[in-house]
Amino acid sequence: MSEIDEDLKRPKRGQFLFAVFFFAVAALLAALLWDQTVWKQGKDLFSQARFWPAVGVFGMVGFTALHIWHLPRRRFSKPDWVEARTWLSVFEFAAWFLVYVWLVPVIGYLPVTMVFAAMLTWRMGYRSRKMLWISVIFAVLVVLVFKSLLQVKIPGAALYEFAPAALRNFLILYL
Amino acid sequence: MDQINDFISQIQASGLYLARWDVVLALLVGSVGGVLIGAIPGVGPAVAIAILLPATFSMEPIVGLTVLLGIYGSSMYGGSIPAILINTPGTAVNALTTYDGFPMTARGEARRALSLAYSASFFGGVFSVACLIFLAPVLAKIAPLFGSREIFLAALLGIILVVVAHRRHTLIAAAMASFGIWLSTIGLHPATYSKRYTFDQAWLSSGVNLIVVVLGLFALSQAFILLQGDDEKIRLGRLKGSYFQGFRELARHPRVAGISASFGVVMGMIPGVGEFTAQFMSYTYAQKSSERPEDFGHGSSEGLIAAETANNAVPGAAMIPLLALGIPGEALTAMMLSVFYVHNVTPGPQLFQNDMDFVVALYLALLILNVLVVAFLLVATNQLIKVVQIPNRFLGVAILTLSFVGVYSLRNSFTDCILAAGFGLLGFILKRLHLPIVPIILGMVLGNIMEVKLRSAMARVKSPLDFVDRPIAAILFSILLLVLVLHFRRVWLDRKERKARKWSISHSSTSFAANLSHRRNFLLTERGKRLRAKRSRYSRPSTDDR
């Protein structure tokens, strides 16, 4: 397959928007290079703290500029904004994730995971009891495997402090 | 005779590493887990390894690495199942399997195709491990010849190869690799104790954690893709026939299998090249040398053997630059590198010199793994194919839930989670636009290696020529130049082809039609403007219409 055929298959919308956004961020970082890094007198170029950040940011600026220059279409159009709306729609799921992270140390890994998995499954359009039960069982399994069995580092919840002493240690260690 | 005795005692010593219940359990979990993960389209080994990585930090290096290696090595076996049955590759490297696997399913030979894929994968895996076990003593002799400047040049070569391997996206891949290099510099500079791009934020002083970036770019972004997309309806037919027929059929194509496995081993050893190049080279070779090249893409057994043998020969070989030089060639081995760092084991020439048993034990684990996977698949394929039917959006829920374990268990940091979500969004955009992600990870890992090695190498270098005066440095530098020359030649040829194509499709008749179309659009727009002006209540009536 030739390059041109591949180009036709590639999604067009959003390419220019992303490239321009990335270029703007790269240019901003490049402008901050002198403020955010230091140059120590008496040291050679490759030992300078500024050298590798400069390679990174100027590489970003230069290659993105060339990428924009090579894009088949170099102006904003309506489909770009439609694509941007799709990108923004993902913030909802990022918010779900961050609320989940925020609640775990407060309420507890097991209860929050069960509610999170069930609610997100509901939000995704699975309304049958079967799917909701599967999501809850999946959540319990995840907690059992990672926290109880593999003992990954997830702190006990603040709410567990109110449990009776014997139960509290168990909850903090395993759930 | 002495050499054979040495070899046997080496294998015995390495076997002791594996003769433990936790390593055996790791082998089982890795192999079965890897097949399952590979068989579910939309998950893939990168997501699974990223999620499991922090959980392996509490294990011993051999146990943790065996689990991850198991997932890496066996996911491609699993990935061939949906590629053959529903024309959707389970992992990205199974894309070529769909070319010949699915047409075989369409004509009612699904079990033959699966059986061929398993046997070809098994051959590729075992061939690469056998090659590497025999190569290990040679590598142990070559690895110490790599000093700082050689490792710097190898890392630079790796980054250049990753960039040029992204054909059609070379410029944006280079920009992403630069982004990765920049990310690796954030935090305190160890040589001058000065802060770099920390914006006076305490949480940035220790830098951006590689695993946070990996989890964001691979796991969270994949969860977002699945949650944002739609479920697909999948129908599976019943499978008939024997799974053992593939081994018999494979034995009839020893040339294709042998050469494809060799391509896999060689390409796997070169950082930044990997499965895709190995597959396409072996597929092209198989097609050109076949007696029935017209069958390729329409259910050719040789095509299927070439694709599956080559991709499964890569994981074993990809461990070579990682173990011998400490240079990961792609994203999965880059993740594995962090397991070494966590346990203060520095992969590189020293590891090959001082701890050869550990290296050979890893290869033996990979060998056993291949046997376990094939045994599991021969027994459990009929049950296993049901995982293909898990709905996409529910998978998204599952990955998002599991990603929490990966990110939060690292340092219990909410900031890490925000960063991972940010990288998840970036990964989502890059995946939607079909832009490369891997250069960011390799930029981060190799950027860090290049910085350290260049600094120590320059201390002993007086003139630029001194940098390449040692034989291996000179060879690496020549390869680097050759890669660049070949790349620019290809860019020039592509440009020429593009121009020729443009000339051939822009006939005078099409230009005339385009002119007419533009003229019509212009007239319609003008008419629209006139009509709107006429009908507007607020505009003054035009005197022309009277």
TrEMBL record, chain A:
The chain crosses the membrane at residues 16-34, 54-72, 93-119, 131-150. Residues 17-155 form the DUF1468 domain. InterPro entries: DUF1468 (IPR009936). It comes from the Bacteria. It holds the Pfam family TctB. Keywords: Membrane, Transmembrane, Transmembrane helix. This is Tripartite tricarboxylate transporter TctB family protein.
TrEMBL record, chain B:
Keywords: Membrane, Transmembrane, Transmembrane helix. The chain crosses the membrane at residues 21-40, 46-72, 116-140, 146-164, 171-191, 203-227, 322-343, 358-378, 390-407, 413-430, 472-492. The keyword Cytoplasm does not apply. The lineage of its organism: Bacteria, Pseudomonadati, Pseudomonadota, Alphaproteobacteria, Rhodobacterales. The keyword Protein biosynthesis does not apply. Pfam families: TctA. PANTHER family: TRICARBOXYLIC TRANSPORT PROTEIN. Residues 25-442 form the DUF112 domain. It comes from the Bacteria. This is Tripartite tricarboxylate transporter permease.
